Amino acid sequence: MKDILYDDIFYMQQALREAQRAFDEDEVPIGAVVVLNNKIISRGYNQTEKLNDSTAHAEMIALTSAYNFLGAKYLPSATLYVTVEPCLMCCGALYWSKLARIVYGASDEKSGGLRFFTDNDGLIIPEKWPFHPKTQLVKGVLAEDCIMLMKNFFKAKRK
Q1: Torsions phi, psi of 61, nearest 5?
Q2: 123 pLDDT exceeds 50?
Q3: CA proximity to 41, closest of 14, 17, 19
């Protein structure tokens, strides 16, 4: 795993802006951006309620937009920034995207997909690596900010 870069913080802030859009639209506040050559080429936020589509996750929307922007079906030089650990469905889509890097903020013990590939210590088992073999994973970037947005959303739902 690569160390957190200064740019990772900047781009995670952009993903948080997308998550705030989801929050403002009463969607689970998860946001994502795809970056290529230090440029954001696509953005996405959860839109499952808006689109009445259980697959309309931030990652899926950002990936589809990036493919369309580039006219390509793979993203081997790009990085995805997402505010919350990808679910199992999104892990599969990320595998097929062949991204260079995946950077996420908050871990998700309930719905995160990485738990299916980890040992008892929470470390991903190399033989079960869920992404393309060349993909690097960075976790915990602005985790507290990502967690707070989720907590505030669900706290408001319980009122």
Answers
A1: -65, -45
A2: yes
A3: 14
Q: List pLDDT tens digits, range 102-120.
A: 999 999 988 999 988 988 8
Sheet with 136-139, edge to edge strand ranges: 39-45, 31-36, 79-84, 101-106, 136-139
Give which of 158, 105, 103 is closest to 136, Cα–Cα.
Answer: 103
Tell me the per-residue pLDDT of 73-85, one tens digit each, with 9 for 90 and over: 999 999 999 999 9
Q: What is the largest CA-CA distance in the chain?
A: 45
DSSP H helical ranges for 3-158: 6-24, 48-51, 58-70, 88-97, 143-157
Residue 34 to residues 69, 144, 148, Cα–Cα distance (Å): 11, 21, 23
Catalytic residue (choose from 18, 27, 59, 85)? 59
Answer yes or no: is pLDDT of 3 > 60. no
The token duo for 52 is 């009445």
Residue 59 annotated to the active site: yes
- CA distances, 132 to each of 17, 18, 47, 151 (Å): 27, 25, 26, 31
Say what the pTM is: 0.93
Residue 107's alpha-carbon distances to 2, 78, 113, in angstroms, are 17, 22, 10
